[in-house]
Design a protein that fits this description.
Elements: E1 11-13, E2 19-23, E3 41-42, E4 52-63, E5 69-83, H1 91-98, E6 103-105, E7 111-114, E8 124-132, E9 136-150, E10 165-169, E11 179-184
Antiparallel strand pairs: 1-8, 2-3, 2-8, 4-5, 5-10, 6-7, 8-9, 9-10, 9-11
């Protein structure tokens, strides 16, 4: 295939938000365009750094006498997604960061109180939605994932509140950690 400039793209968040999450067992989207199940909640704005998809292959090299590498044994592929939610007052964000049972909301849905505890994060479904520059949209679906790291939250008059968040996907029954769907933007 020849070089095609239109295949080089950048992305922006889809209208309504780029990060969505829902309880485990929620109906998973199977394409890029169908509306998300009502169980999904938006995280709101994410910092201008966007969402970083990080992958690494765990491997061990075997060397022969004399030092030549003769085989590389792969031991799995670790994937993480890293982003910084900047809607600190969004109850969904607070619940995902600190656990749903640790966040109390007022009758209008705003955050009333948050308890920081040692409670483990539940595995949930995550969806990331992007508009690609080439007129396409992309939806990444993590059927089973968990918040595995929360970075520093700096209180400052020069920056938005919001710690960096790492989400780690786990394999589903088919061994898939993430599904990526694309379609022409409508």
């Amino acid at each position: 295939m020849a070089q095609t400039a239109k295949n080089a793209v950048y992305s922006k968040p889809k209208a309504g938000g780029a990060v969505w999450s829902a309880p485990a067992g929620s109906t998973l989207p199977t394409d890029a365009t169908t509306a998300l199940d009502g169980a999904f909640e938006a995280w709101g704005y994410v910092s201008e750094d966007g969402i970083a998809e990080n992958g690494s292959i765990n491997s061990t090299t075997i060397k022969a006498y004399g030092g030549a590498t003769v085989i590389t044994i792969e031991g799995g592929n670790d994937i993480t997604y890293v982003f910084t939610p900047i809607e600190y007052g969004n109850a969904t964000v607070q619940k995902e960061l600190y656990g749903g049972s640790n966040v109390e909301t007022d009758t209008d849905g705003s955050v009333k109180s948050v308890k920081l505890t040692d409670e483990a994060h539940e595995q949930r479904v995550f969806v990331f939605e992007h508009i690609l520059f080439n007129g396409r949209i992309e939806r990444t679906v993590l059927p089973s994932a968990q918040v595995t790291s929360i970075g520093t939250n700096t209180y400052s008059s020069g920056a938005a509140l919001g710690p960096e968040v790492t989400v780690t996907p786990y394999p589903d029954a088919s061994g898939v950690k993430a599904y990526k769907y694309q379609a022409k933007a409508v």
